Amino acid sequence: MEKHTNSITENPVSTSTNYQVLLYYIYSPIENVVEYRDIHHQFCLENNLLGRIIIAPEGLNGTVSGLAEDTEKYMAWVKSDPRFAKVDFKVEKVEKHAFTKLYVRIKKEIVHSELPVNPLEQTGKHLEPADFKELIKSDPNVVLVDMRSNYEHSVGKFKGAVTFDMENLRELPDHVNEIAHLKDKKIVTYCTGGIKCEKASAYLLSQGFTDVYQLHGGIIKYGLEEGGEDFDGKCYVFDNRLTTDVNSVNPVIISKCHICGTESDRMVNCANPDCNEHLPICEKCGHEMEGACSVACKENPRKRPYDGTGYYAKTTVGYKPEIAFRTRKNTKTLHIVEELGLNP
């Protein structure tokens, strides 16, 4: 395959508002993950797309940003593959690229969970946003369960939802006992875009929960299609926006500045990479603390320069954007490929 150098590794400057962010996933077996990773990466490079895409034997998971015409072309291209024809894209309008780089990686799972389930065999019943809205309004006995990490639901969640103090989905088995008394209730799981719920709802069913649903398309789709009513706060997203507005009906702020305690839904990634906590910090405190969440973090010699956003692009050692970069040069990817029994 011809070498193609990514000339858009850094965020291009543009005043156009004609950009879109795509959020999507699909569980559909991929046998040729190495070959498909290269083809997929090449397409993104040629169409000026940035973001994070995971290719795994169980399917695709991605968040991509670009000009509207480029993202429309990308959606059509992905769906042209029969394996991914049913993929559901959530599309948000933005003013510029929501990423500064492009990563297309091979991993063992499209969402890291290590849960012993297969969403293609069993998962919770899907609720479209309109049906979800009707259900939570008409049935007071429905229990909403947030399957996201603690820092995500700290800045926004559905009214009355059950949340877990977990760092990632791998910890779900350690917290499922907290809702064990609800096994006979109607459980509705939700997350940002729906992907975590595919495995989380399947896991609940495997643990004896009898009536399990999931919000199809997650919080983002609910906001886009139904106005986000009764979602309090903002939705944490994994791009340089950090949060996005969801509720246009009855919005409220539920989080407080970590520094001064005033109401704030402005999420900041601590400027100290040794800390790296994601916390709500108001604009005033953000500038006074130079993006740090404490005095100790502010004084840390490794503290990153604060540009007022609180977002820092992840630095990945060993990953290069060039399409000619082969998996054998990346020991982490090579380990995954070998573990999956694939030929790099």
Automatic annotation (TrEMBL):
Name the UniProt record assigns to this protein: tRNA uridine(34) hydroxylase
Tell me the Pfam families matching this sequence: Rhodanese (PF00581), Rhodanese_C (PF12368), UPF0176_N (PF17773)
Report if keyword Electron transport is assigned.
Answer: no
What keywords appear on the UniProt entry?
Answer: Oxidoreductase, tRNA processing
Task: Output one GO MF annotation.
Answer: oxidoreductase activity, acting on paired donors, with incorporation or reduction of molecular oxygen
Domain Rhodanese spans what residues? 138-231
> Which GO biological process categories is it annotated with?
tRNA modification
Summary of the function given for this chain in its UniProt record:
Catalyzes oxygen-dependent 5-hydroxyuridine (ho5U) modification at position 34 in tRNAs.
**Does NAD show up as a keyword for this record?**
no
The record's top EC class is oxidoreductase
InterPro entries from the xrefs?
Rhodanese-like_dom, Rhodanese-like_dom_sf, Rhodanese_C, TrhO, TRHO_N
What's this protein's family per the entry? Belongs to the TrhO family.
Which reaction equation describes what this protein catalyses? uridine(34) in tRNA + AH2 + O2 = 5-hydroxyuridine(34) in tRNA + A + H2O
What PANTHER family is this protein classified in? RHODANESE-LIKE DOMAIN-CONTAINING PROTEIN 7-RELATED, THIOSULFATE SULFURTRANSFERASE/RHODANESE-LIKE DOMAIN-CONTAINING PROTEIN 2
- What EC number(s) is this enzyme filed under? 1.14.-.-
